[in-house]
Structure formats: C-alpha cells, structure tokens
Amino acid sequence: MKPSRKKKRRTVEVPVASMGDIAFLLIIFFLLLSEFAKDKDLPIDLPVSKQVEKTEAVVVARVAIDSEGVIYFDGDRVDNAKDVEWGVRALLTKTVADEQRHVQFKCDASLSKETFEPVLKAIAEAGGIIEAVGEEK
Amino acid sequence: MSKKRKQPEKRKITGDIPTGSFSDIAFLLIIYFLVATTLVKVKSITADLPTGEKQAKAQLDKTPIVNLRGADIYFSDKKVTVENLNARLAALKLAEKPPAKRVIMLESTNATVYQSYFQVLAAISANGGVVAIVEEEE
C-alpha cells in the first residue's frame, strides 16, 4: 500500500503592489478631465418646449443671462453682448469643423427681446452655433 | 552579587513610509469622486443663425416669416399656436430643401419674452429650418 501523499496547498498571491499607482493615476485622469459647471447656481428659469432633446454636442463656450439680465461668459460676468462676441470669436479663430462651433446659451424665460437678442446675434456673428438650453414640457 | 540588568536592545528606526494602505485611500477617493459627481446632460435645441443680413433682406419677400408680437405668434400674417406653427413648418418639408431655401425669417417686438422666442426657435430648428433674425431698421 502506497503511503498517501499530502497535497501541498499552493498559495496564490495577487500582485497588489501597483494597485495604489493605478488608483492614483485614475484619480489624476478624472481630475484632469472633469469640468466644473460654473453657471450652476445662477438664478435662471429655463424656457419650456416639447422639442428640446439631450445634446451630445461638445460646447466651446457657455453664455448665460440670469433673471436680472446680467450676462455671463464661461461663468464670468461681462458687460454687454459685444464682449460675448469677442470671447466666442477668440475661441473659434482656428476652428473649421462645425462640431467645434457649438456655444451653449442659457437665458431666463421671462427676459425681453432687448436683453437676449443682442447676445444671440453676437454668438451668431462670431460664428457660433447656438445650443439654446431649455426644459422639456 | 550584583545583577547586571539586561539592557533593552535598541530598536533600529527605519525611515520607511507605510504605503500599504495607499491603494485603499486612492480607491476611496475614486469612489468619493464618482459618487459626488453629477453628470449634467442638458436638453437643448440647436439653432444655426446665418449672419448674412443683406442676402436675407433681399429674399425677404419670398421667405416665410414668423412674427412674434408679445406672446402671439403669426405665420405669414396669420395668428397660429405653437402646434399650428409646427404643422405648417412640417408641411414646408424644409429638411428636404437646399440650405439656402430653408431660411425662415423671425421678427419680434420688444415685448416678446424669451419663452415665446424659444418655442418658435425650437419649432423652426426641429423642422430643419434656418432662422434668420429680422432686424428693425433704426
């Protein structure tokens, strides 16, 4: 009769030494790619429509007009529509493709034409395609 | 007889930083950012406004025109609702036409609020139209 051999238990170790490095690389990647919404807290009551849809377009700039009629360009307050035009124009100087010309436009629903139309025209004059933000009915 | 006290051995202090928990900290940070981040996908309409004013003026008599007088909408001088405007714009089959013939003029009074303007802009854009803003002559 053969003596029974005791099976040796093999321990399988997962190499975890580089896990920390990978995790920190992931954090750095997310931090660099993140974009903080600068106009999130602005008092804007968005207009309502049935035809709004979720957009996949990447916007080059964000223009907002709050309920007081104050204009913001990429989160910073600007004096008038002309500033918006120059800002968008500066961003689009080397842009050729249409996909890179989208400018997000947020405006309070109660504002009158005198306030928002010059800004819309300014974006168009600068060569931007307007992504007018609204809410679904 | 004096007993010699056994002196405790001096521990060697090594300057190693304990890095064993680094990966845990890092993953906790990742989870924190993933949970705290809100991915905002806004809903919008796309409107490409041409800037060639002179050309638009020349075509004014041929081009369909939407007038906004306060909250009232007029299409070719007839009062319409947003739904009617949609239906009439759909009947024009703008999407099938060349870009130059997709132009819809948009005129508005000073009393027009952005809510009405946005709805008209959305209707024109959704039906494949290109919005041309009519400027008031000074």
Question: If you average the pLDDT of chain B, what whole number results?
Answer: 80
Helix segment tally of chain B = 4
Strand content of chain B: 15-25%
Q: Which bin fits the share of residues in helices of chain A?
A: 25-40%
Biggest β-sheet: strands ordered side by side in the sheet of chain B: 4-3-2-5-6
Mean pLDDT of chain A: 85
Q: If you compute it from the alpha carbons, what radius of gyration of chain A comes out, rounded to the nearest whole angstrom?
A: 26 Å
Q: So what's the oligomer here?
A: heterodimer
Please outline the major beta sheet of chain A: 5 strands, mixed
Number of helical segments of chain A? 3
Q: Which structural category fits the helices and strands of chain A?
A: alpha/beta
Q: Segments of chain A where pLDDT lies below 50 for 5+ residues?
A: none
Description:
Chain A has a domain at 48-136. Chain A is 28% helix and 20% strand. Chain A contains three helices and eight strands. Chain A has helices at residues 19-33, 81-91, 113-125; strands spanning 48-49, 53-54, 61-65, 71-73, 76-78, 102-107, 129-133, 135-136. The N and C termini of chain A lie far apart (85 Å). Chain B has a domain at 53-133: Nucleotidyltransferase, domain 5 (2-Layer Sandwich). Chain B has helices at residues 22-36, 53-58, 82-91, 114-126; strands at residues 43-47, 65-69, 72-75, 78-80, 103-108, 130-133. Chain B has a five-stranded mixed sheet. The chains are: A alpha/beta (137), B alpha/beta (138). The A-B interface holds A 16, 19-20, 22-24, 26-27, 30-31, 34, 37, 40, 47-55, 57, 102, 104, 107-114, 116-117, 120-121, 123-125, 127, 129-136 and B 19, 22-23, 26-27, 29-30, 33, 37, 40-51, 108-115, 117-119, 121-123, 125-126, 133.
